[in-house]
User: What shape does this take?
Amino acid sequence: DLIEDGKEGLMVPAGDVNALRAAMESLLDDPERARSMGRAAHEKAKEYTWERYGERWKAMLHELCL
Assistant: This one.
């Protein structure tokens, strides 16, 4: 839910060394795509402040207590 595949990063199956290698090689072959994903990931990370984390927990706990 944090990363959209191909936008903020690349998703690979856990433990799949070949998929990881292919993903890394694809970024090495396309540095502009890697920079673009890095910028997108940086912007996405701004959404995850401690304040927003607390707000999400508060809302979840409030819903559980109803």
